[in-house]
Amino acid sequence: MTMILSDDRRAAPRGDTAIAEEDGNPMARPRTPLLDRQRIVHTALRLVDEAGDLTIPALAGALKVSPSALYHHVTGRAEIVALMRAELVRVIGERSLWDRPWDEALRGWARAYREAFAEHPGIIRLLATAPLAEPFMHELYERAVATLEAAGFARADVMGVITALESFILGSALDLVAPAVMVDAVDREATPRLAEALAAVPAGRHRADQAFEVGLAALIAGYRTLLPAGRAAGAATGPTAGVAGPDPISDQA
Protein backbone atom coordinates (compact mmCIF):
# COMPACT_ATOMS: atom_id res chain seq x y z
CA MET A 1 0.00 0.00 0.00
CA THR A 2 1.08 3.54 -0.61
CA MET A 3 -1.18 5.61 1.50
CA ILE A 4 -0.13 9.19 2.06
CA LEU A 5 -1.54 11.01 5.03
CA SER A 6 -1.00 14.49 6.35
CA ASP A 7 1.97 15.94 8.21
CA ASP A 8 3.32 19.47 8.06
CA ARG A 9 6.76 19.06 9.55
CA ARG A 10 9.59 20.70 7.61
CA ALA A 11 13.00 19.27 6.81
CA ALA A 12 16.17 20.68 8.32
CA PRO A 13 19.19 19.97 6.11
CA ARG A 14 22.45 19.31 7.87
CA GLY A 15 25.47 20.08 5.80
CA ASP A 16 27.95 18.91 3.19
CA THR A 17 30.04 15.81 2.84
CA ALA A 18 31.22 16.15 -0.75
CA ILE A 19 34.74 17.41 -1.44
CA ALA A 20 34.98 20.40 -3.79
CA GLU A 21 37.71 22.63 -5.11
CA GLU A 22 37.84 26.16 -3.75
CA ASP A 23 40.57 28.70 -4.48
CA GLY A 24 42.62 25.97 -6.15
CA ASN A 25 42.61 23.71 -3.09
CA PRO A 26 40.91 20.40 -3.97
CA MET A 27 40.45 19.51 -0.27
CA ALA A 28 38.91 22.81 0.86
CA ARG A 29 35.43 22.74 2.36
CA PRO A 30 32.95 24.49 0.02
CA ARG A 31 31.48 27.81 1.13
CA THR A 32 27.95 26.40 0.74
CA PRO A 33 26.83 22.79 1.32
CA LEU A 34 27.04 20.63 -1.79
CA LEU A 35 24.80 17.89 -0.48
CA ASP A 36 22.02 17.51 2.04
CA ARG A 37 19.02 15.26 2.40
CA GLN A 38 16.59 17.73 0.90
CA ARG A 39 18.70 18.08 -2.24
CA ILE A 40 19.01 14.30 -2.46
CA VAL A 41 15.22 13.88 -2.14
CA HIS A 42 14.33 16.57 -4.67
CA THR A 43 16.81 15.20 -7.21
CA ALA A 44 15.57 11.65 -6.63
CA LEU A 45 11.99 12.76 -7.27
CA ARG A 46 13.05 14.41 -10.53
CA LEU A 47 14.90 11.28 -11.67
CA VAL A 48 11.98 9.02 -10.84
CA ASP A 49 9.63 11.31 -12.76
CA GLU A 50 11.96 11.13 -15.77
CA ALA A 51 12.94 7.45 -15.67
CA GLY A 52 10.34 5.73 -13.48
CA ASP A 53 13.05 4.18 -11.32
CA LEU A 54 15.91 5.12 -9.04
CA THR A 55 19.49 3.84 -8.75
CA ILE A 56 22.29 5.10 -6.55
CA PRO A 57 24.73 5.61 -9.49
CA ALA A 58 22.16 7.61 -11.46
CA LEU A 59 21.33 9.75 -8.43
CA ALA A 60 25.00 10.38 -7.68
CA GLY A 61 25.56 11.35 -11.30
CA ALA A 62 22.68 13.81 -11.25
CA LEU A 63 24.07 15.36 -8.06
CA LYS A 64 27.63 15.39 -9.47
CA VAL A 65 29.05 13.53 -6.49
CA SER A 66 30.47 10.05 -6.00
CA PRO A 67 28.05 7.34 -4.83
CA SER A 68 30.00 7.08 -1.59
CA ALA A 69 29.17 10.72 -0.78
CA LEU A 70 25.48 9.84 -0.61
CA TYR A 71 26.11 7.38 2.21
CA HIS A 72 27.13 10.22 4.52
CA HIS A 73 23.47 11.25 4.46
CA VAL A 74 21.46 8.09 3.75
CA THR A 75 21.94 4.38 4.32
CA GLY A 76 20.93 3.42 0.79
CA ARG A 77 18.18 3.29 -1.80
CA ALA A 78 15.51 2.10 0.64
CA GLU A 79 15.99 5.14 2.84
CA ILE A 80 15.87 7.46 -0.18
CA VAL A 81 12.53 5.93 -1.16
CA ALA A 82 11.31 6.46 2.40
CA LEU A 83 12.45 10.09 2.27
CA MET A 84 10.62 10.63 -1.02
CA ARG A 85 7.49 9.26 0.61
CA ALA A 86 8.05 11.61 3.53
CA GLU A 87 8.39 14.58 1.19
CA LEU A 88 5.04 13.79 -0.42
CA VAL A 89 3.53 13.43 3.05
CA ARG A 90 4.87 16.87 3.98
CA VAL A 91 3.34 18.67 1.01
CA ILE A 92 -0.12 17.20 1.47
CA GLY A 93 -1.14 19.37 4.38
CA GLU A 94 -2.38 19.53 7.93
CA ARG A 95 -2.36 16.76 10.51
CA SER A 96 -5.70 18.17 11.73
CA LEU A 97 -7.29 16.59 8.64
CA TRP A 98 -7.99 13.47 10.69
CA ASP A 99 -9.85 15.40 13.40
CA ARG A 100 -12.73 16.02 10.97
CA PRO A 101 -15.77 13.76 10.45
CA TRP A 102 -14.68 10.59 8.67
CA ASP A 103 -16.24 11.42 5.30
CA GLU A 104 -14.71 14.91 5.21
CA ALA A 105 -11.35 13.48 6.25
CA LEU A 106 -11.40 10.87 3.48
CA ARG A 107 -12.41 13.41 0.85
CA GLY A 108 -9.72 15.87 1.92
CA TRP A 109 -7.06 13.18 2.04
CA ALA A 110 -8.07 11.76 -1.35
CA ARG A 111 -7.94 15.15 -3.10
CA ALA A 112 -4.62 16.17 -1.57
CA TYR A 113 -3.09 12.71 -2.13
CA ARG A 114 -4.13 12.75 -5.81
CA GLU A 115 -2.64 16.19 -6.39
CA ALA A 116 0.65 15.23 -4.73
CA PHE A 117 1.03 12.13 -6.88
CA ALA A 118 0.00 14.03 -10.01
CA GLU A 119 3.08 16.23 -9.47
CA HIS A 120 5.29 13.12 -9.40
CA PRO A 121 3.52 10.37 -11.37
CA GLY A 122 6.74 8.44 -11.85
CA ILE A 123 6.90 7.61 -8.17
CA ILE A 124 3.59 5.76 -8.05
CA ARG A 125 4.98 2.39 -9.13
CA LEU A 126 8.04 2.81 -6.92
CA LEU A 127 6.05 3.51 -3.77
CA ALA A 128 3.39 0.93 -4.60
CA THR A 129 6.03 -1.80 -4.44
CA ALA A 130 7.99 -0.46 -1.44
CA PRO A 131 6.86 -1.85 1.95
CA LEU A 132 5.66 0.70 4.49
CA ALA A 133 8.32 0.03 7.11
CA GLU A 134 8.82 3.60 8.34
CA PRO A 135 7.57 4.33 11.89
CA PHE A 136 6.38 7.80 10.84
CA MET A 137 4.07 6.19 8.27
CA HIS A 138 2.76 3.77 10.89
CA GLU A 139 1.91 6.75 13.09
CA LEU A 140 0.07 8.41 10.23
CA TYR A 141 -1.91 5.24 9.55
CA GLU A 142 -2.76 5.18 13.24
CA ARG A 143 -4.56 8.51 12.88
CA ALA A 144 -6.61 7.25 9.95
CA VAL A 145 -7.54 4.03 11.74
CA ALA A 146 -8.56 5.96 14.86
CA THR A 147 -10.75 8.28 12.80
CA LEU A 148 -12.54 5.41 11.08
CA GLU A 149 -13.00 3.34 14.22
CA ALA A 150 -14.36 6.36 16.10
CA ALA A 151 -16.87 6.84 13.28
CA GLY A 152 -18.17 3.31 13.82
CA PHE A 153 -16.38 1.24 11.17
CA ALA A 154 -15.69 -2.32 12.24
CA ARG A 155 -12.04 -3.06 12.88
CA ALA A 156 -12.14 -5.82 10.25
CA ASP A 157 -13.27 -3.29 7.63
CA VAL A 158 -10.91 -0.38 8.37
CA MET A 159 -7.88 -1.44 6.31
CA GLY A 160 -10.15 -2.44 3.45
CA VAL A 161 -11.65 1.06 3.45
CA ILE A 162 -8.18 2.61 3.37
CA THR A 163 -6.76 0.27 0.72
CA ALA A 164 -9.73 0.57 -1.62
CA LEU A 165 -9.64 4.35 -1.46
CA GLU A 166 -5.93 4.66 -2.03
CA SER A 167 -6.08 2.25 -4.98
CA PHE A 168 -8.72 4.52 -6.52
CA ILE A 169 -6.58 7.59 -5.82
CA LEU A 170 -3.49 6.12 -7.51
CA GLY A 171 -5.44 5.37 -10.65
CA SER A 172 -6.96 8.85 -10.58
CA ALA A 173 -3.50 10.41 -10.24
CA LEU A 174 -2.37 8.57 -13.36
CA ASP A 175 -5.51 9.73 -15.15
CA LEU A 176 -4.43 13.34 -14.51
CA VAL A 177 -1.35 12.84 -16.66
CA ALA A 178 -3.04 10.64 -19.28
CA PRO A 179 -3.71 11.90 -22.83
CA ALA A 180 -6.66 14.28 -23.08
CA VAL A 181 -8.53 11.77 -25.26
CA MET A 182 -8.26 8.16 -24.12
CA VAL A 183 -11.07 6.68 -26.22
CA ASP A 184 -10.43 7.77 -29.77
CA ALA A 185 -11.43 7.03 -33.39
CA VAL A 186 -14.96 6.01 -32.41
CA ASP A 187 -17.29 5.06 -35.26
CA ARG A 188 -20.54 6.96 -34.60
CA GLU A 189 -22.56 4.57 -36.72
CA ALA A 190 -21.23 1.41 -35.10
CA THR A 191 -21.28 2.72 -31.51
CA PRO A 192 -23.66 5.71 -31.37
CA ARG A 193 -24.28 5.62 -27.60
CA LEU A 194 -20.56 5.57 -26.87
CA ALA A 195 -20.01 8.49 -29.25
CA GLU A 196 -22.73 10.53 -27.54
CA ALA A 197 -21.39 9.73 -24.07
CA LEU A 198 -17.89 10.81 -25.11
CA ALA A 199 -19.26 14.02 -26.59
CA ALA A 200 -20.74 14.87 -23.19
CA VAL A 201 -17.40 14.51 -21.38
CA PRO A 202 -15.77 17.81 -20.31
CA ALA A 203 -12.60 18.85 -22.10
CA GLY A 204 -9.08 18.96 -20.71
CA ARG A 205 -8.40 18.38 -17.04
CA HIS A 206 -12.10 18.76 -16.28
CA ARG A 207 -12.60 15.26 -17.66
CA ALA A 208 -10.26 13.71 -15.09
CA ASP A 209 -11.62 15.89 -12.28
CA GLN A 210 -15.21 14.90 -13.05
CA ALA A 211 -14.36 11.19 -13.13
CA PHE A 212 -12.47 11.50 -9.84
CA GLU A 213 -15.31 13.28 -8.04
CA VAL A 214 -17.90 10.79 -9.34
CA GLY A 215 -15.79 7.86 -8.16
CA LEU A 216 -15.01 9.46 -4.81
CA ALA A 217 -18.69 10.15 -4.14
CA ALA A 218 -19.54 6.55 -5.01
CA LEU A 219 -16.87 5.20 -2.66
CA ILE A 220 -17.99 7.38 0.25
CA ALA A 221 -21.61 6.35 -0.35
CA GLY A 222 -20.57 2.71 -0.37
CA TYR A 223 -18.59 3.12 2.84
CA ARG A 224 -21.68 4.50 4.57
CA THR A 225 -23.39 1.14 4.12
CA LEU A 226 -20.70 -0.43 6.32
CA LEU A 227 -21.63 1.75 9.31
CA PRO A 228 -24.14 0.81 11.99
CA ALA A 229 -27.55 2.48 11.75
CA GLY A 230 -27.40 6.06 12.97
CA ARG A 231 -23.64 6.47 12.39
CA ALA A 232 -23.57 7.01 8.62
CA ALA A 233 -23.76 10.81 8.74
CA GLY A 234 -20.19 11.18 10.01
CA ALA A 235 -18.97 12.30 13.39
CA ALA A 236 -16.13 14.32 14.87
CA THR A 237 -13.15 12.13 15.66
CA GLY A 238 -11.44 13.25 18.82
CA PRO A 239 -9.14 10.22 19.21
CA THR A 240 -6.65 11.58 16.66
CA ALA A 241 -6.38 15.07 18.11
CA GLY A 242 -2.98 16.02 19.42
CA VAL A 243 -1.13 13.12 17.78
CA ALA A 244 2.29 14.50 16.90
CA GLY A 245 4.27 13.36 13.90
CA PRO A 246 8.05 12.97 13.54
CA ASP A 247 10.34 14.90 11.25
CA PRO A 248 11.46 12.07 8.96
CA ILE A 249 13.54 14.09 6.49
CA SER A 250 15.78 15.98 8.92
CA ASP A 251 19.39 14.87 9.22
CA GLN A 252 20.54 13.64 12.56
CA ALA A 253 23.08 15.84 14.28
Note the total helix count: 10
| Low-confidence runs of at least 5 consecutive residues | 4-24, 235-253
Assembly state of the chains shown: single chain
Major sheet characteristics: none
Average residue pLDDT: 79
Give the topology string: H per helix, E per strand.
HHHHHHHHHH
Distance between the terminal alpha carbons, to the nearest Å? 31 Å
What proportion of the residues form beta strands (DSSP E)?
under 5%
Kindly state the number of beta strands: 0
How much is the radius of gyration in Å?
Answer: 22 Å
As a percent range, the share of helical residues equals 40-55%
What would you call the shape? flat
Estimated structural class = mainly alpha
Descriptive overview:
The chain is an all-alpha fold and 253 residues long. It has ten helices and no strands.
Structural descriptors:
253 residues; disordered C terminus; mainly alpha
Architecture blueprint of SSEs:
Layout: H1 37-51, H2 56-63, H3 67-70, H4 77-92, H5 102-119, H6 123-128, H7 135-151, H8 155-176, H9 192-199, H10 205-224
Helix pairs in contact: 1-2, 1-4, 4-5, 5-8, 7-8, 8-10
Summarize the structure.
The chain has 253 residues and is mainly alpha-helical.
